[in-house]
C-alpha cells in the first residue's frame, strides 16, 4: 500500500514578481502531485511565500510602503499562480508572516535551544543581502557573492545567536549517504563534499534594532530570527506542526513519503542546514530533495537590463497555461540549466500543440461527430505505460511526455495509413469501428496528458464523451 505523499516547493522571496524560474519549479511539482494522485496516492502539496529578512525590509522602505502591506501585495501575486498556471485545486499556501508559522518557527528554535545547539556570540563578517547570509572567504568570487556579482557584500559586526551546525557533521554524512536523499546524484555529492570540508556554525538571528522585520526570538526582544531559520520551518508548519490538530504532520511527514523541490543553489540550505535543524529538534528528516537547474535566455542569465526576461504571465495570457506547462516539461531539462527563448517556445507550440495534439483531436472527433450515432463509452481507468511510469519516477518529464507524444504520432500514422475518412464511405461499418478505436485511444492519451496539461486533458475527454468536435485547442500562431 502506497504511503501518503508530501510534496513542497521552496518559498519564493517576495521582493519581485513571479518569474519563469519559479514557474518551472511549481509546474514540475504540480505534475508530480497530479500524477501521484492519479496513481491513487493521498497527496499533500504545498507552496507559499518567504516574507521576512533585510531584502524585503529595504524594498518596502524604498517604495515607501508598510512592510506588511508590501508583503501582502507580493504574496497575492504568487498566490494567483494557482489559477494562472492551473495548479492542483488542493494546493496549500503558507506565508511566513502567518501567525501559526511564526509560532512554529519559535517552537523549533526552543527545541534546538533545549538540545544545546543554540548559543550567542559576537560576530563580524561580510553579509550578502541578496542571499541573506554571511559569506566565508572561500565563498567569494572576486570579492563578491557568486550568486549576486553586482552587489557589494556589506561588513556587519553584531551579537547574534548561532546554530551549532558543526555538531552534525557525522549525522549529516549518514543522511546524505542514502542515495535517495538528494536527486540528481551529482548534487548529493556536492552536499557530501561541502559537509566533508568541515562545517561552521551559522548565525540564526539579527539585531532587531537593525532589522525589525522578522520572527521574534523567544525570550529575547532584542533579536529577530535569521530569515532562513524562520523560512525553512514552513515545510512542517504548513502541515499544522507542532499542534497537528488535523493529523497532517503525523500522516504526511512522520509516516509519509516526503519530497522537497528546490533550485540548484539551495543545496546548502535544504540538504544541510534544514536537515541539521530537524535532527536537533528530533524530527524526521526529509526523505528526498530534488534540485532543478536554472533557466537562461539567449545564453545569458535573465536580466531586466539585458531585456531577456521571459514573463510567464504574458505567455499564459497569449498561449494558455497548458502551452507553458507543456514547454517547461518537454523542453527544459529537469536538472541542468536550459536556455529558453520565445522563438523556441513558439516553434514548439506550433509543431507539437497546434499541428500535433490539437490537430489530431479535431480530426478524430470531426469523424466521430459526423459518423457515429452515439459517443463511445468511457473506458475503464487503466494503469499507465511502463515507460511513462519509469520516466516520472526518475523526474524525467520530457520522456514521460515523449511517451504521450508517441501515442499522438501513432494515431496520426493510423489516420494516414487506414484513412478512416475514406473507409467510412466504402465500408461504413469497418470505418466506424476504426473511428471508435481511435477515439478510445485518444481518450487514453488525454488521460496520460492530465498531469502535464490538465485543461487540455479535460477538454479532450469531455468532447469524446459528448461525441463532439472540440473548439480549437491550440490556434496556430505566426
Strand residue content: 5-15%
Give Rg in angstroms.
25 Å
CATH architecture of the largest domain: 3-Layer(aba) Sandwich
What is the typical, i.e. mean, pLDDT?
A: 93
Low-confidence stretches: none
| Count of DSSP strands | 15
- What is the CATH domain class of the largest domain? Alpha Beta
**Global morphology:** elongated
- Cα(first) to Cα(last) distance is 49 Å
* Order of neighbouring strands in the sheet with most strands: 3-2-1-11-12-7
Largest sheet: 6 strands, parallel
Structural class estimated from helices and strands: alpha/beta
CATH topology of the largest domain: Rossmann fold
What is the CATH superfamily of the largest domain? Answer: HUPs
SS element count, helices: 19
Number of domains: 2
The helicity comes to 40-55%
Can you give a write-up of this model?
The structure is a single chain. The protein folds into two domains: 5-292, Rossmann fold; 341-466, Isoleucyl-tRNA Synthetase, Domain 1 (Orthogonal Bundle), CATH 1.10.730. The strands form four sheets. A six-stranded parallel beta sheet has the order 3-2-1-11-12-7, sandwiched between helices. The chain has helices at 20-38, 54-62, 67-79, 81-84, 99-114, 169-176, 185-196, 227-232, 234-237, 248-254, 267-280, 312-319, 321-330, 342-371, 386-393, 397-418, 420-426, 428-449, 454-466; strands at residues 5-8, 43-49, 92-95, 118-128, 133-135, 154-163, 182-183, 202-203, 205-207, 223-225, 257-263, 288-292, 295-297, 300-301, 338-339. α14 packs across α16, α15 (386-393) packs antiparallel against α16 (397-418) and α16 runs antiparallel to α18 (428-449). It has 478 residues and is of the alpha/beta class. The two termini are 49 Å apart. The longest helix has 30 residues, at 342-371. A hairpin with a 2-residue loop joins β13 (295-297) and β14. The protein contains 19 helices and 15 strands.
